[in-house]
Amino acid sequence: MPDKAFMALKNSGEVVIKIITPLCLVFIVILILNLFLKPSHIAKFLGREAGMKGIFLSMVAGVISIGPVYAWYPLLQELRKKGVDDFFIAVFMGNRAVKPFLLPIMISYFGWGYAVVLTLFTILGSIFVGYTVGSLGKNAVSW
Amino acid sequence: MWQNSYQLKQGTESAHLKIIQESNLKIAISAEGKNLDSRVGQRLGDSQYMLIVDLETGDFEAIPNPRGSGQRAAGIQAVVLAITKEVSIVFTGYCSPNARKYLADNGIEVLTGIVGTVADVLEKYKQGDYQEDEPADAEIETGGFQISRSYLIETIKKSAIQFGNLLPIFASVILLIGLFNSFVSRELLSSFFSGNPILDTLYGAVFGSMLAGNPINSYVIGGELLKNGVGLYAVTSFIVAWVTVGLIQLPVEMAALGKKFALARNAVSFIAAIAIAIVTVFVLNTVRGLVY
Known about the structure:
With 143 residues, chain A is mainly α. Helices cover 78% and strands 0% of the residues of chain A. In chain A, helix 3 runs parallel beside helix 5, helix 5 runs antiparallel to helix 7 and helix 6 (103-110) crosses helix 7. The longest helix of chain A has 35 residues, at 2-36. Chain A is globular. In chain B, helix 5 (149-183) runs antiparallel to helix 10, helix 7 (197-210) packs parallel to helix 9 (232-244) and helix 10 (250-257) crosses helix 11 (259-291).
């Protein structure tokens, strides 16, 4: 049992090392956004009425975001506070499942047909999740 | 409108200020009276009036500064006034750091140490005298416009605080994930999957929700599960839920993005993972059926 506990710690340690780089990247992104992004921009691009542009932006951002999701929470929190609609946050998070540079690995395990179809439905799924979460936020009584 | 704040800081020795004629460049000036020849108020919260000047039309309105029962209340009133009037810059004698930050968060710049009359201020502004707001700071050139060093340091501090607030919970999440990955072996997982496709898909999503980390691991584990006879529906829901649903990270997500959002997003994503799995495999099977 102590064996496994040690392994667990080691595993955690590896995780920490693995995420330090993405975490630094995220910090830099937060910094840059704080420096240059004003609430009026956010409202224009990702507020409630942002529409297709916003969907596309958050999709792309989700796909290219690296590192574990919890490294991105601080940034998402700030964006949300600045007025980004829940819809886009959810679309971003859902599209993190699509990782172009991991596709080769997925293909080697499951075949390219699978990879293509799964990617497609993951993207569609993220929009569905975004829409649902977004409208829940707008219409629900606070609970 | 945002551009104007930065234009002000773009100081070069031979500068002449071009007033960018944006359609709503309005400024606010603390004042002790309601005319243009009134003296500039020396404390943002404590001045008798706030003059809102529309630089494009030259119109101005004098709004009495509501004096609250205490200094702090008055300050907030003035800040809120500036925000609701959508000014770009506030001119005053002194502004508290909190008020300055609050205004800055709303895209409003504050220039302090302003003395003289309101008319003086307007004249000096038009002549570009207010570019040297922080003359002691080295200007850091960044992609086309310049940011003063103190602003940069302030922003770094602010970003670090936002970041640091979530670190303690990160630590516990990381530890938990390590624990889970070590104690839950592949054999253990396979034994759960009975062969019932509906239940298996559900279990797949459940396990995917509990685990997290690099998606590569989900592919590896998924591959192993496939080898051990677990159906593709279950493996797919497992892979999708791995990334989109996070039970272990849920506390952090709730802390960062709100309880309501986090719970809703995870719940809907869980259902979506199952749906995506079903649809994906179904489509694949149909296509294969057509092709072969």
